[in-house]
Automatic annotation (TrEMBL):
Keywords: Metal-binding, Zinc, Zinc-finger
Protein known as: MYND-type domain-containing protein
Domain of life: Eukaryota
An example molecular function term from Gene Ontology annotations: zinc ion binding
Domain MYND-type: 23-68
Gene3D superfamilies registered for this protein in UniProt: 6.10.140.2220
SUPFAM superfamilies associated with the record: HIT/MYND zinc finger-like
């Protein structure tokens, strides 16, 4: 389920029409004719692909036989992938997955549908948001991180539970649905930090990140101000480059010096200088329309690391020139994907061109989004930014 990072993916998305169960038949392009009904059968060995009929299952076996045992192992690890501490997790993972509720109805129940930062969580709003109106949380103060945090001790932030505890958020707060973007970026930073002493020395005062293929997060950029709390005392600059950047936003820059606000009138976030301004650094974002290798020469600063969320490296040949550029740059790069299989295939597709082994093998992202994506094709555990790996 690659995102529209590179050309070709629009067509891919159109092919993902869903049937009653929210799943499509994996055998429909295997040359055995059109589907005969909803995809109610599963592979009996791994349980990952769905089929409309035994005919289509048999036709697909030619392709599936190479991946079946691997997917069986991934399915056995599903429990850990589906494990979230949130009180709403069953709603946004299982119930959304089986189609019992939708993201829209979940947000409506929270009184967040089409509001503030939540507008981009579903497709009901057209993506026309510009920088002019800063988005806020639309939540009471106790439910969202709208003011500064106490100093973070690096070792204690390993997962959503420790993040929520550090930010004094109750586990019913849905902010993780949005904050998985900056938290995953922070996690990538920490992985490289632990791995490379050169990186540690270079990013003490400033950190430049090249962020490839932004999409939904373009409509919730204010959420990246959480990096003020996560990576304090530095200037974090993010160049976001991708075809998802609209022509009207190409070249636009954003300076994030405060957190999205809460609903409470008397909260500290409403005073012009909330507490602890001095501990903060600065977060800036600049948007670039196009593919990385096409815009690279125009980018003003070389990056300390490269981050490509939900990249779909193996799915899109158009990644190849970008990958060659990344490999020759020797800059640490972290890629995420929707499921373990996609991350595995991606790492296997880049490994032959790498001069050294991966810096980070395929691993579960503790800050994956606790929301089942709608266009899920297989029954493999699948979330935005679910698995990641690193090279260079
Ligand atoms: Zn079929
Ligand atoms: Zn199978
Ligand atoms: Zn909606
Ligand atoms: Zn507030």
């Amino acid at each position: 389920m690659p995102r529209e990072t590179h050309e070709g993916s629009v067509q891919c998305r159109q092919e993902m029409e869903v049937h009653g169960t929210g799943r499509s038949c994996c055998g429909k392009y295997a040359g055995a004719g059109p589907c005969v009904g909803p995809a109610v059968l599963r592979c009996g060995s791994c349980g990952a692909p769905n089929y409309c009929s035994l005919d289509h299952q048999m036709a697909h076996w030619r392709d599936h036989r190479q991946e079946c045992s691997r997917m069986a192992e991934q399915m056995m690890r599903a429990g850990a992938v589906h494990d979230f501490p949130f009180s709403f997790a069953e709603d946004t993972t299982q119930l959304v997955d089986v189609g019992a509720i939708t993201v829209c109805s979940f947000l409506e129940n929270c009184d967040l549908h089409l509001k503030g930062l939540w507008k981009a969580q579903c497709d009901c709003a057209s993506s026309v948001e510009e920088f002019a109106t800063p988005s806020d949380w639309q939540l009471p103060s106790r439910m969202c991180p709208c003011t500064d945090a106490c100093q973070l001790s690096e070792s204690h932030m390993m997962d959503w539970a420790s993040y929520y505890s550090w930010r004094s958020l109750p586990l019913e707060s849905p902010v993780a649905l949005i904050l998985h973007w900056p938290l995953t970026l922070y996690h990538a930073f920490c992985l490289i930090w632990k791995h490379s002493s050169t990186f540690r020395a270079n990013v003490e005062r400033a950190c430049v990140i090249h962020y490839l293929g932004p999409e939904k997060e373009l409509d919730m950029l204010e959420a990246f101000s959480e990096l003020l709390a996560l990576l304090p005392h530095r200037h974090v600059h993010i160049d976001m480059i991708g075809p998802g950047v609209s022509a009207s936003r190409d070249g636009k820059a954003l300076d994030l010096n405060e957190y999205p606000k809460c609903l409470d009138e008397d909260c500290l976030c409403k005073t012009s200088r909330g507490s602890g301004v001095k501990v903060r650094g600065r977060v800036t974002i600049k948007l670039w329309r196009g593919l990385y290798h096409e815009r690279y020469s125009e980018l003003e600063t070389s990056p300390h690391f490269i981050f490509a969320p939900n990249a779909g490296l193996a799915a899109f040949p158009s990644w190849q020139p970008t990958l060659r550029l990344i490999l020759s740059s020797k800059v640490p790069a972290i890629f995420t994907d929707y499921c373990e299989e996609a991350a595995d295939l991606a790492l296997r597709s880049v490994s032959p061109a790498c001069s050294s082994p991966p810096t980070h093998n395929v691993q579960l992202n503790p800050f994956r989004q606790p929301l089942c994506p709608r266009d899920k094709q297989l029954n493999l555990p699948t979330y935005s930014n679910c698995f990641l790996f690193g090279i260079n």
